Amino acid sequence: MWVITAYTKNNIQMFEFDTEKEANEAFRRIQGYKILSNVVYFNDSYLVESY
Q: What is the pTM of this model?
């Protein structure tokens, strides 16, 4: 999951995205100070080693 946290003078907003591509496209459009974060859960299927 990807999260953009956007800060303005009087407000804080958070936006969630499933893919990095979606998040990057939105990141370019969002105004103000912003942070793009990749949230990783310990049980994400792509992190689990398959045997």
A: 0.76
Taking the chain, what is the end-to-end CA distance rounded to the nearest angstrom?
25
**What are the tens digits of pLDDT across the range 1-51?**
899 999 988 999 999 999 999 999 999 999 889 999 998 877 666 666 655
Is the separation of the CB atoms in 7 and 33 below 8 Å? yes
Which run of H or E residues covers position 22?
helix 20-29
Instruction: Return the percent helix, strand and coil in the chain, to nearest 5.
Output: 25, 35, 40
Between CA 2 and CA 43 the distance in angstroms is: 16
Do the Cβ atoms of 6 and 12 come closer than 8 Å?
A: yes
